[in-house]
Amino acid sequence: MQIDLTGSDVVDAHCHPFRSQDLLDREPRAFETRCMYLGTALISSNHANHDLAEFVEELTETTLFGLALRRWLAAHLGCEPTKDAVVAARDGALRADPPGYARDLLASERVVAVVADEGYPQPTIPREDFEAALGGVAVHRVGRIEPWIVAARGDGTFDGMVQRFEEAVNLAASDPQLIAFKTIIAYRTGLDITDPTSAAAAAAYERWREDDWRETREHAKPVRDFLLRRAFALAKTHDRVFHVHVGGGDPDVNLAHATPRDVFSFFVEQQDIPIVMIHSGYPWVAEATYVASVLPNVYLDLSELVPWGWGQIDWSLEMILGAVPGAKVLHGSDESSEPEMFPTSARLVREALERVLGTFIDRDFLSVADAETIGRGVLADNVRRLHGI
Ligand SMILES: [Zn+2]
Question: What is the distance in A from the centroid of ligand 1 to the CA of 169?
Fold first, then answer.
């Protein structure tokens, strides 16, 4: 049987801010491709080959997400499901009223609030600007520690750098709108977090500076691991959740040290703070499922798997919800440039939840009421409860 979750609110647990002007400035014909994993990586990665941009756009024509996005958006805009018609209708609606266009997209799938990782893009887009670009949909802040490390390091002493970094963390925590901290150390020196003494971190800091701040495991890693531990300690005193990027990403990621397995021993140590594994370790979702089923305070955000794992959502949700308590699973889209990411991801997950939870009812694992509670939890209630939204 299939349950109906269309009445549920959606709160997106992981996305990135934009301004209305950003939407207007970009090439209208390539908006579908900017939603794809390939197109997103072309914008965010320092290792992208931009000579391949035309080929990447051609590939959208055979990407399941791209083809579904076009038809779903055509239905929303009331136009033919062809590239030309959708691009024209979308561009017209966007230019007529950018915040209204975004607000209607989010409303079409009941996306009532979003949690925005401010670390990308840089420089940081203020919460108020993103909220305005979404036509007033509530935006909650996640502060990323890596830009604060860049701002804190320099010519001075190690102790001075640590002090500036801690001031940045404390300043961020003074805003009640900031509901979590985030680290992308998986993109820098890896998730296998060590525990250097402050003398060892100070010596590494001198070497890191002499090495022109290159991201090596030899010089940068002891400093980054030391600061991450300081940030975790401060997050505990400020009663904030920690979001940790775990899994793949764009080609800048340190893929050799990005898995749930790499970060497991650190999470075992840090059981007295709620941790969200952003991206559920995708593509290592089975490993992340294990970690969240054995550590009470580790939560899973579904972004990256959603929407870019497109055909893997049903069986991944069956695996995750078959083992991890439903209250620890959060919907996220990883939107990082186009507002169409919000309704597409929300519909993808809602319909997959309806099918997967329906099969659990058929097997007599769940009552209809249990299934609806778990479904609404993944879509909105869990992220709200965890972050006190
Ligand atoms: Zn992201």
Answer: 20
The CA-CA-CA angle for residues 337, 113, 303, to 5°, reads: 55
Instruction: Give the list of residues 6+ apart from residue 153 with CB closer than 8 angstroms, or none.
Output: 161, 205, 208, 209, 213
- CA 119 / ligand 1 centre spacing (Å): 9
Beta-bridged to residue 278, according to DSSP, are 245
Q: According to the 3-state scheme, what is the secondary structure of 316-368?
A: HHHHHHHHCCHHHEECCCCECCCCCHHHHHHHHHHHHHHHHHHHHHHCCCCCH
Per-residue pLDDT tens over the stretch 313-345: 999 999 999 999 999 999 999 999 999 999 999
Residue 248: how many CB atoms within 10 A of its CB? 19
Q: Token digits for 119? A: 């670390």
CA of 335 to the centre of ligand 1 (A): 7
| CA distances, 177 to each of 38, 114, 203, 388 (Å) | 32, 12, 37, 10
Each residue of 112-169: pLDDT tens digit?
999 999 999 999 999 999 999 999 999 999 999 999 999 999 889 999 999 999 999 9
Cα-to-centroid distance, 260 and ligand 1 (Å): 17
How much is the pTM?
A: 0.97
Residue 325 near residue 350 (C-beta atoms within 8 A): no
Instruction: Report how far ligand 1's centroid is from the alpha carbon of 37 (Å).
Output: 11
Using CA atoms, how far apart are residues 274 and 271, in angstroms rounded to an integer? 7
Centre of ligand 1 from the C-alpha of residue 278, in Å: 8
Max Cα–Cα distance, the chain, nearest Å? 65
Distance in Å, CA 121 to ligand 1 centroid? 10
Q: How far is the CA of 207 from the centre of ligand 1 (A)?
A: 31
Q: Which residues pair with 242 in a beta bridge?
A: 181, 275
Give the DSSP H or E segment for 385: helix 382-387
Q: Which residues partner with 304 through β-bridges?
A: 307
Q: Which amino acid is at 318?
A: E
